[in-house]
C-alpha cells in the first residue's frame, strides 16, 4: 500500500524585474522634490537677506555714483559716475583715512592675535583660576561697545586711572594726552579694540589647543622638551589652520570698527582717528553729503569683501584637508 505524498505548495510567483528605465526616470523626480523642499526652507532667509542686505547695498552703489544731498534725498539723484570716488582721493580725505585704517587694523590684528594665543596657552589647563579668568574674558568680550568705550575713555582721560598712577608715582610730570594727541589717540583706540578682541581669539585658540592629545605632551616631556619647545613645535603647528581663520576675522573686525572711535574720540583730535567707516559716517550724517559718504562706504565694503573671499577660501581648504 502506497502512502500518497502530501501536495507541495506552489512556489510564489516571481516578481517581474523592475526595469532600470523606470528607476532612472524616478531619480530626477526625487531630486526635483528634494530641491523644492530645500528652496522652501531657504525662502524666508533669502527674502530677509534680499530686503535687509542686498537692497541696501544696491541703494548704496547707486548713491555712490550720484549727487545726493539732504534736499534731494527723496528726489531724483543726478548721476556723476566716479566723481565721488575721485573727489575723496583728490582732497586727500580718502587717502589719509585709508592710511589710518591700515595702521589701526595692523595694531588690532597684531595685538589681538598674539594676545589671544598667549592667553589661550596660559589658560590651556583647566582649574579654578583658569575658569574664573575665562568667565572674566567672556564678560569683557560680551560687554556692549558703548559701555566698554565709555569705561576706557574714563581710564585714559587726564584725570583717569592711568594718568593718576603715572603722576602719583613720579613717572610723569604732566598727564599723557592718550585721547588728545594726533598720534596717541589712534594708538589708544586701536589698543582698546585689540583688548576687546583678545578674549574671543583666546577662546577659539584654547578650543584648538584642547584638541591636542595629552599623549603628545607626555611624549615631549619624556624627550626632555622645554615649555618653549612645546609651544613652538606642538602648540603653534596644531593651531595653524585656526590661526588663518582668526587672522581674517580679526582683520575684518578691525576694518569695520566704528563704535569705539565714536564713543572715545569721535574721529579726533581733528581727523586723527578718522578711519574709512567713520569718515563715511561724517560725510553722510554730519555734512549731509550722502554721495561722498556712500563712495567711502563702498570702498570699505570692497576691502571687507576681499577679506571675506580669503576667509571663505581658507575655510574650503581646511574642510578639504580634513
| Strand content range | under 5%
Report the radius of gyration as a whole number of Å: 30 Å
C-alpha end-to-end distance: 79 Å
Which class best fits the helix and strand makeup?
Answer: mainly alpha
- The assigned CATH architecture of the domain at 78-145 and 184-321 is Orthogonal Bundle
Task: Give me the strand/helix succession.
Answer: HEEHHHHHHHHHHHH
Q: Widest sheet: strand order?
A: 1-2
- Which residues sit in consecutive blocks of at least 5 with pLDDT less than 50? none
Explain this structure.
The protein has helices at 20-64, 83-91, 93-122, 128-142, 145-155, 161-168, 184-210, 214-222, 227-238, 240-255, 259-264, 276-285, 290-321; strands spanning 66-67, 78-79. By secondary structure, the protein is mainly α. It has a domain at 78-145 and 184-321: MetI-like fold (Orthogonal Bundle), CATH 1.10.3720.10. Strands 1-2 form a two-stranded antiparallel sheet.
Topology:
Layout lengths: L19 H45 L1 E2 L10 E2 L3 H9 L1 H30 L5 H15 L2 H11 L5 H8 L15 H27 L3 H9 L4 H12 L1 H16 L3 H6 L11 H10 L4 H32 L1
Antiparallel strand pairs: 1-2
Short description:
The chain has 322 residues and is an all-alpha fold. The protein has helices at 20-64, 83-91, 93-122, 128-142, 145-155, 161-168, 184-210, 214-222, 227-238, 240-255, 259-264, 276-285, 290-321; strands at 66-67, 78-79. Helix 1 runs antiparallel to helix 13, helix 7 (184-210) runs antiparallel to helix 10 and helix 10 runs antiparallel to helix 13 (290-321).
Essential attributes:
about 325 residues, mainly alpha, MetI-like fold, two-stranded antiparallel ribbon
Amino acid at each position: 500500500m502506497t502512502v500518497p505524498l502530501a501536495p507541495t505548495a506552489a512556489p510564489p510567483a516571481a516578481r517581474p524585474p523592475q526595469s532600470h528605465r523606470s528607476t532612472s526616470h524616478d531619480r530626477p523626480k526625487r531630486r526635483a522634490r528634494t530641491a523644492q523642499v530645500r528652496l522652501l526652507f531657504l525662502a524666508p532667509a533669502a527674502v530677509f537677506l534680499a530686503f535687509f542686505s542686498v537692497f541696501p547695498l544696491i541703494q548704496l552703489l547707486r548713491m555712490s555714483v550720484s549727487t545726493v544731498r539732504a534736499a534731494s534725498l527723496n528726489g531724483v539723484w543726478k548721476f556723476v559716475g566716479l566723481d565721488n570716488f575721485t573727489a575723496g582721493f583728490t582732497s586727500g580725505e580718502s587717502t589719509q583715512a585709508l592710511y589710518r585704517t591700515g595702521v589701526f587694523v595692523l595694531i588690532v590684528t597684531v595685538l589681538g592675535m598674539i594676545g589671544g594665543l598667549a592667553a589661550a596657552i596660559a589658560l590651556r589647563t583647566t582649574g579654578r583660576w583658569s575658569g574664573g579668568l575665562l568667565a572674566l574674558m567672556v564678560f569683557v568680550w560680551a560687554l556692549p561697545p558703548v559701555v566698554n568705550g565709555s569705561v576706557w575713555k574714563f581710564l585714559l582721560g587726564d584725570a583717569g586711572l592711568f594718568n593718576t598712577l603715572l603722576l602719583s608715582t613720579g613717572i610723569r610730570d604732566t598727564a599723557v594726552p592718550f585721547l588728545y594727541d594726533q598720534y596717541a589717540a589712534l594708538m589708544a583706540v586701536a589698543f582698546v579694540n585689540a583688548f576687546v578682541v583678545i578674549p574671543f581669539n583666546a577662546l577659539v585658540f584654547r578650543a584648538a589647543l584642547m584638541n591636542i592629545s595629552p599623549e603628545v605632551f607626555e611624549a615631549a616631556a619624556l624627550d626632555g622638551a622645554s615649555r618653549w619647545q612645546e609651544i613652538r613645535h606642538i602648540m603653534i603647528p596644531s593651531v595653524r589652520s585656526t590661526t588663518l581663520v582668526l587672522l581674517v576675522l580679526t582683520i575684518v573686525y578691525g576694518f569695520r570698527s566704528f563704535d569705539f572711535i565714536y564713543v572715545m574720540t569721535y574721529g579726533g583730535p581733528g581727523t586723527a582717528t578718522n578711519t574709512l567707516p567713520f569718515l563715511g559716517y561724517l560725510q553722510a550724517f554730519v555734512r549731509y553729503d550722502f554721495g561722498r559718504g556712500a563712495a567711502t562706504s563702498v570702498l570699505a565694503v570692497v576691502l571687507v569683501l576681499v577679506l571675506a573671499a580669503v576667509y571663505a577660501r581658507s575655510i574650503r581648504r581646511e574642510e578639504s584637508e580634513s
